[in-house]
């Protein structure tokens, strides 16, 4: 099977009620108010008619202002967000590095969470047990690995999450910004690990505001603007186009 990403006229909408209401009670109250209630808010059209293909060997940078659609695009490719219309084809093992601290069970130990997080990544308990010692060594949080996650500092949680999420590479690697993973020594290890994953991946998608990083890693750039891909071409030209559109 050839690893690839092919999108044809892909649209993605968010239900506005998910953003507008702060609780179930206020949501239900607004629904029973009828036409005389508050003004309706239209659903958010997060991705608009996106058509493109990405093949093995490509390193693609995603540019755009905050809210332009970069992160939504990555999560759609990862299969986390269902599309509203169009066709999405993603062939290959996908590994993503965003929201890496999600999926922790606070009352369970770090060691137990290694297993839980592995299951969320689609890996088997047997496989997670086989790489547990490597993850523990990389996270380097000492005896806290056998303490509940709720006793961890924020930095310790990020270190363990990063160690788990990057323990296994994939054919298609999705990165959202550069990971801040703790102290200076750990950051050196983290950057090296990311570099190894990038080298191993057949396809890389990297969303970042760091143009220097994008231009050093990627050859192709996609510029997002209000949910649309308004430029698709060489990364250097993509940076120029982004700056022109956003007046920076």
Report on the architecture of this protein.
With 248 residues, the chain is an alpha/beta fold. It has a domain of 130 residues: P-loop containing nucleotide triphosphate hydrolases (Rossmann fold, 3-Layer(aba) Sandwich), CATH 3.40.50. It is built from ten helices and nine strands. Strands 5-6-7-3-8-9 form a six-stranded mixed β-sheet, with helices on both faces. A hairpin with a 2-residue loop joins strand 8 and strand 9. Helix 4 crosses helix 7 and helix 6 runs antiparallel to helix 7.
What class do helices, strands and sheet pairing give?
alpha/beta
Q: Sheet bearing the most strands, described?
A: 6 strands, mixed
CATH class of the domain at 4-93 and 207-246: Alpha Beta
H/I helix tally: 10
Rounded to the nearest angstrom, the radius of gyration is 20 Å
Report strand %.
15-25%
Low-pLDDT stretches are none
Assembly type: single chain
Per DSSP E runs of 2 or more residues, the count of β-strands stands at 9
DSSP helix fraction: 25-40%
CATH superfamily of the domain at 4-93 and 207-246: P-loop containing nucleotide triphosphate hydrolases
Q: Overall 3D geometry? A: globular
> What are the secondary-structure elements, in order, as H or E?
EHHEEHEEHHHHEHEHEEH
CATH architecture of the domain at 4-93 and 207-246: 3-Layer(aba) Sandwich
Tell me the strand order in the biggest sheet: 5-6-7-3-8-9
What is the CATH fold-level name of the domain at 4-93 and 207-246? Rossmann fold
Distance between the termini: 42 Å
Average pLDDT, all residues: 87
GO molecular function: ABC-type transporter activity; ATP binding; ATP hydrolysis activity
InterPro entries: AAA+_ATPase (IPR003593), ABC_transporter-like_ATP-bd (IPR003439), ABC_transporter-like_CS (IPR017871), ABC_transpr_TagH-like (IPR015860), Bact_Polysacc_Export_ATP-bd (IPR050683), P-loop_NTPase (IPR027417)
Protein name: RfbE, O-antigen export system ATP-binding protein RfbE
Domain ABC transporter: 26-248
């Amino acid at each position: 099977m050839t690893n690839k990403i092919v999108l044809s006229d892909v649209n993605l909408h968010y239900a506005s009620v998910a953003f507008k209401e702060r609780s179930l009670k206020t949501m239900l109250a607004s629904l029973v108010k009828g036409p005389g209630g508050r003004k309706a808010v239209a659903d958010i059209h997060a991705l608009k008619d996106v058509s493109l293909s990405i093949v093995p060997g490509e390193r693609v940078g995603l540019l755009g202002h905050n809210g332009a659609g970069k992160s939504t695009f990555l999560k759609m490719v990862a299969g986390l967000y269902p599309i509203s219309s169009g066709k999405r084809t993603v062939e290959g093992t996908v590994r993503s590095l965003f929201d890496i601290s999600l999926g922790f069970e606070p009352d369970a130990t770090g060691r137990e969470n290694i297993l839980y997080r592995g299951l969320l990544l689609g890996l088997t308990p047997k496989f997670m047990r086989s790489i547990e010692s490597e993850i523990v060594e990389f996270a380097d949080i000492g005896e806290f690995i056998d303490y509940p996650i709720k006793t961890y500092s924020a930095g310790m949680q990020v270190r363990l999450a990063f160690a788990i999420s990057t323990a296994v590479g994939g054919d298609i690697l999705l990165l959202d910004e550069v990971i801040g993973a703790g102290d200076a020594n750990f950051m050196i290890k983290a950057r090296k690990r990311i570099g190894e994953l990038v080298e191993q991946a057949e396809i890389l998608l990297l969303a970042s505001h760091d143009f220097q990083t994008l231009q050093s890693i990627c050859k192709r750039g996609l510029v997002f603007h209000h949910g649309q891909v308004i430029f698709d071409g060489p990364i250097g030209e993509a940076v120029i186009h982004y700056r022109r559109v956003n007046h920076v």
